[in-house]
Write a structure and sequence with these properties.
Elements lengths: L2 H22 L3 H7 L5 E6 L6 H5 L6 E6 L9 H13 L4 E7 L3 H7 L6 H5 L1 H14 L4 H21 L2 H8 L5 E7 L6 E3 L7 H10 L4
Parallel strand pairs: 1-2, 1-3, 3-4
Antiparallel strand pairs: 4-5
Helix pairs in contact: 4-9, 5-7, 7-8
This protein binds zinc ion.
The site of zinc ion has 7 residues, from helix 5.
């Protein structure tokens, strides 16, 4: 396939999609153009195989999304913090889903010594998590260690999210806001909840005491 053809395919697919959506729901674009009212913010990995709207069956307008390599949540990341703040304060989403996925190359890179320019800095926190836990995790097979690290990374990022000012502000003002920690299986397409939801400062404190060191 030529490079031009690769791109033309996207426009062709787009026109087909518009036709299908309009056939099912003639007012869809008029309605969704006027406002968005998503109940959910999704924070996930950039991996091309983990497509949030598709795997949750949600149409445009219902899922606010932030993605980066290894679904990292860091208070110094202005991009992520702006998305969280806008979602919570302006859109008033009721759920924030932190979703990792098995087979995550970002998590695997943090477990090795490979340095790849900016990615090396980006994965600093994930690497620290690995350094802290590798003694335990390497008692089993490497495959199990990779899966467990991916799950621990969801926990770490979930707790980081719960400490951000925007989330704390929502909880202090009694806004109903649940933080979820999920994992996606590339091999079966299934989502699974890994940890109990966190919906208040007291629940966060409990989660932190059960996850010391994260
Ligand atoms: Zn990934």
């Amino acid at each position: 396939m030529s490079q031009d053809h690769e791109i033309e395919t996207l426009f062709k697919n787009n026109r087909q999609w518009v036709a299908e959506v309009t056939r099912e729901d003639p007012d869809f674009f008029v309605r969704t153009a006027s406002q968005q009212t998503p109940k959910y913010l999704w924070i996930g990995c950039s991996d091309s195989r983990v497509t949030p709207n598709q795997i949750t069956g949600l149409p445009p307008g219902q899922l606010f999304v932030h993605r980066n390599i290894a679904n990292v949540i860091n208070e110094s990341d202005l991009n992520c913090m702006s998305v969280v703040d806008f979602a919570v304060r302006v859109l008033q989403v009721r759920h924030v889903i932190v979703c990792g996925h098995y087979g995550c190359a970002g998590v695997h890179a943090a477990m090795g010594d490979i340095t790849q320019g900016p990615l090396d800095d980006w994965l600093d926190g994930v690497r620290a998590l690995w350094d802290h836990n590798k003694g335990d995790l390497l008692k089993g097979s490497l495959e199990t260690a990779k899966d467990r690290m991916t799950e621990l990374n969801v926990r770490k990022q979930m707790l980081s999210l719960c400490r951000t000012p925007s989330i704390e502000h929502a909880w202090r003002h009694q806004n109903s806001l649940q933080i979820h920690g999920w994992i996606y299986g590339l091999k079966n397409g299934l989502l699974r909840s890994l940890y109990p939801d966190i919906g208040s400062i007291s629940q966060r404190t409990r989660a932190e005491s059960e996850s010391s060191g994260l």
